[in-house]
Design brief:
The structure holds two protein chains of two kinds. By secondary structure, chain A is mainly alpha-helical. Helices cover about 70% and strands about 0% of the residues of chain A. Chain A contains four helices and no strands. The longest helix of chain A is centred in the C-terminal third of the chain and has 32 residues, at about 65-95. Helix content of chain B is about 60%, strand content about 0%. Chain B contains eight helices and no strands. Classes of the chains: A mainly alpha, B mainly alpha. The interface between A and B is large, with 49 and 63 residues.
Chain lengths: ~110, ~250
């Protein structure tokens, strides 16, 4: 299987980002894009029939631990950045009474 | 019209990616990563700075990094400075959530009235989940997991209490103090490494035998610090999400 197929997830996220009318949906499209990148990185270190990178008795054929270590960072930061973005959505809803891009952009332009 | 344009854009981007990245050796196929040519092999053999005699489970003493879990060895030992930056990003985003919402006195009311059994049962489950989180944090150098998933488990036990008890409100001041103290401890640990070995966040404790609980030098300490810090940060984010907007 071609590892570039993980870019499909990234492209789905980008498509959603450019078409979604709702701000919360846009936030989750960013999350989907991030999931595609995580899949790509984990693919890079994958070995057919490989074992986990934790030492035990008679361990051979360890998968690449470096992408996994990098992706821990991405997952943790991604979750908190999503939390921050959703908090911004709450503020936007309190200010404009809506989380639709159209309404927010129109009302924001008048002020 | 907008959707068609977006589809065309995405398809063109996909075709470009397929054309330009498919025909070189940048990405190995699914399941045939060549570790011999990568820096990862030195992390697995623990010979990033010098040669050693090979890693033997339960016997190897004084390795470069004594954690059985290689991912942990990279995150909390080889690239610990990176993790310090990551923890800083976590702190900034939880600080941003707190700053956006402001101090709020009231929490969101539940749609239902929790009965006695739900309250007591959720408290029993809270203890189990909290213990699992602490366990995962402490055993980060031996088993999958570590400080970040452990911290998320600690925060999820707080979330359970919030969802099952309509009067529960955690003492956020305690969490904020815990978070700051843990951040300071991490820096102090790094400075101690600087004083003793000459490198920031360098391991200065005995590595022990690979695979035992008291091994891997300061990796368990770092992961306990990270677990408590992440747990208190995510708990404070949860608290802010579940409290009403302060006037």
């Amino acid at each position: 299987m071609n590892p570039l197929l993980t870019f499909l997830v990234v492209l789905i996220g980008l498509y959603g980002l450019s078409t979604s009318k709702n701000i919360i949906k846009s936030v989750f499209c960013v999350t989907i894009t991030e999931a595609g990148v995580i899949l790509l990185f984990l693919n890079l270190g994958n070995l057919e029939g490989g074992s986990i990178p934790i030492f035990a008795e008679g361990l051979v054929n360890i998968v690449d631990p470096l992408p996994q270590a990098l992706m821990i960072t991405t997952i943790v930061i991604g979750s908190t950045v999503t939390a921050l973005a959703l908090m911004l959505c709450i503020k936007i809803f309190h200010h404009y009474g809506s989380v639709e891009w159209d309404v927010v952009l129109r009302d924001g332009g008048e002020e | 019209m907008k959707k068609v344009l977006a589809l065309v854009f995405v398809l063109v981007l996909g075709a470009l990616i397929m054309n330009h990245l498919n025909d070189n050796n940048l990405f190995a196929g699914f399941g045939d990563a060549m570790l011999e040519n990568r820096v990862s092999q030195s992390y697995i053999d623990r010979d990033a700075t010098e040669n050693n005699d090979g890693v033997v489970f339960d016997e190897s003493l004084d390795l470069e990094s004594g954690a059985a879990n290689t991912v942990t060895a990279i995150v909390a030992d080889y690239r610990s400075f990176d993790t310090l930056g990551e923890v800083t990003v976590l702190f900034i985003s939880s600080f941003g959530v707190a700053l956006l919402l402001g101090q709020s006195k009231k929490r969101i009311a539940l749609e239902f009235k929790p009965n006695f059994m739900l309250k007591i049962g959720s408290r029993a489950l809270f203890a189990v989940i909290l213990m699992t989180g602490v366990f995962v944090s402490i055993h980060g150098h031996l088993t999958p997991g570590g400080g970040f998933p452990g911290g998320a488990m600690i925060a999820s036990s707080m979330l359970l209490l919030y969802l099952a008890d309509d009067e529960f409100r955690a003492k956020m001041r305690g969490f904020k103090i815990l978070e700051s103290v843990m951040g300071v401890f991490y820096i102090i640990l790094g400075l101690a490494g600087l004083m003793i070995t000459g490198f920031f966040l360098e391991n200065f404790l005995d590595n022990g035998a690979l695979g035992t609980l008291f091994s891997a030098g300061m990796i368990p300490i770092v992961y306990i610090i990270i677990g408590l810090k992440v747990g208190s940060e995510i708990s404070s984010v949860i608290d802010h999400f579940l409290s009403e907007e302060g006037a």
